[in-house]
């Protein structure tokens, strides 16, 4: 029974790999992939300006959002046979690291929007 499952699994994987190989597009030559420039010059700029400051603020928001996801399961984990003082120390170290990171970003001026 087990050998049958393994053989069937192997056949499915081989069939899948064969289908990928058969259905893949042929490789594109360098000349075909390079842009061909003709016609008139565009009146608009093709590049949209991007604010690096906005990116930094979004990154800081993402870090604190992930931090919230890591902290929310802690009450569920308190059911384990671990000393509650150990949990408080772990959470305290986690918060201290985040606050130190936020303080560093503030000192570097990453949170000032007007610069």
TrEMBL record:
Keyword flag Membrane: yes
Signal peptide bounds: 1-24
A GO molecular function held by the record: NADH dehydrogenase (ubiquinone) activity
Reactions it catalyzes: a ubiquinone + NADH + 5 H(+)(in) = a ubiquinol + NAD(+) + 4 H(+)(out)
TM stretches of this protein: 48-73, 85-104
Principal location listed in the UniProt entry: membrane
EC number: 7.1.1.2
Domain of life: Eukaryota
Enzyme class: translocase
Record keywords: Electron transport, Membrane, Mitochondrion, NAD, Respiratory chain, Signal, Translocase, Transmembrane, Transmembrane helix, Transport, Ubiquinone
DNA-binding is among the record's keywords: no
Membrane topology note: Multi-pass membrane protein
Family designation: Belongs to the complex I subunit 3 family.
Function of the protein: Core subunit of the mitochondrial membrane respiratory chain NADH dehydrogenase (Complex I) which catalyzes electron transfer from NADH through the respiratory chain, using ubiquinone as an electron acceptor. Essential for the catalytic activity of complex I.
Protein name (Swiss-Prot/TrEMBL): NADH-ubiquinone oxidoreductase chain 3
Organism name: Neomysis awatschensis
Gene that encodes it: ND3
């Amino acid at each position: 029974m087990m050998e049958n499952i393994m053989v069937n699994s192997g056949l499915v994987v081989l069939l899948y790999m064969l289908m990928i190989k058969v259905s893949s597009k042929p490789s594109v030559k360098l000349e075909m992939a390079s842009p061909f420039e003709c016609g008139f010059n565009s009146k608009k700029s093709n590049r949209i300006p991007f604010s690096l400051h906005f990116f930094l603020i979004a990154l800081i928001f993402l870090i604190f959002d992930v931090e919230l996801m890591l902290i929310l399961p802690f009450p569920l984990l308190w059911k384990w046979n671990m000393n509650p003082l150990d949990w408080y120390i772990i959470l305290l170290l986690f918060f201290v690291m985040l606050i130190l990171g936020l303080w560093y970003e503030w000192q570097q001026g990453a949170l000032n929007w007007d610069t």
